């Protein structure tokens, strides 16, 4: 069965620096991959979607890459701010039917 | 536009009791999901509906969990009888299409004592 791995250790980063999160998966590549943000006590909020045939997507200070050879996606937050502190979840769809499997998430703490 | 509505936000019950959660998706969204999120973990899909039909319920513990989506709009998730390990946040999400972002509700936090 497919597995998704995100770094379970929290990422502490100084304000203004770039935060880089990883999402690794096993077996074959998904049709597409999504990243979500989750704040304590709230539901996840969609950030970005990248398809199997795309290498990079950007949205404001966010950038996602997708390397099907390495079976890995990287999520970057540039010029990080304390308001970026949250848990970030990657989610993969291997069925192209919008059946998402989530990773365990990585907590990011941006210090002023 | 109104978001995904869930109720109740919090519920505390004793083991072997029953509980029901309600979800009203965003208007017009054909696909509805129930996820279970245990503390410190990512959401785990329990069931996916397309309109009022079940697309996937392979991870739903059917001996105790049931879900329905009557008339293809709102949905109810029931647990009967509850076990201690059912303590989690139950997230409802909806999507307007077969591919693309999910819109989540705030979740219903269940504590089983």
Written account of the structure:
The complex is a heterodimer of chains A (112) and B (113). With 112 residues, chain A is an all-beta fold. Chain A is built from no helices and 11 strands. In chain A, the strands form 2 sheets. In chain A, strands 2, 4, 5, 9, 10 and 11 form a 6-stranded mixed β-sheet that branches. Chain A has a 5-stranded antiparallel β-sheet with strand order 1-3-8-7-6, with no helix packed on it. The model of chain A has no long low-confidence stretch (mean pLDDT 94). Chain B is mainly β and 113 residues long. In chain B, 0% of the residues lie in helices and 49% in strands. In chain B, strands 2, 4, 5, 6, 9, 10 and 11 form a 7-stranded mixed β-sheet that branches. In chain B, a hairpin with a 6-residue loop joins strand 4 and strand 5. The relative contact order of chain B is 0.33. Classes of the chains: A mainly beta (112), B mainly beta (113). Chains A and B meet through strand 5, strand 9 and strand 10 of A and strand 5, strand 9 and strand 10 of B.
Q: What portion of residues of chain B is helical?
A: under 10%
> What is the first-to-last residue Cα distance of chain A?
41 Å
Average pLDDT taken over every residue of chain B? 95
In sequence order, what are the helices and strands of chain B, one letter per element? EEEEEEEEEEE
Query: What's the count of strands of chain B?
Result: 11
Query: Unreliable segments of chain B (pLDDT under 50, ≥5 consecutive)?
Result: none
Q: Mean pLDDT score of chain A, rounded?
A: 94
Shape of chain A: globular
Question: H/E order of the elements of chain A?
Answer: EEEEEEEEEEE
> What's the tally of helices of chain A?
0
Give the number of helices of chain B. Answer: 0
| Beta content of chain B | over 45%
Taking the alpha carbons of the first and last residues of chain B, their distance comes to 37 Å
Low-confidence parts of chain A: none
Q: How large is the radius of gyration of chain A?
A: 13 Å
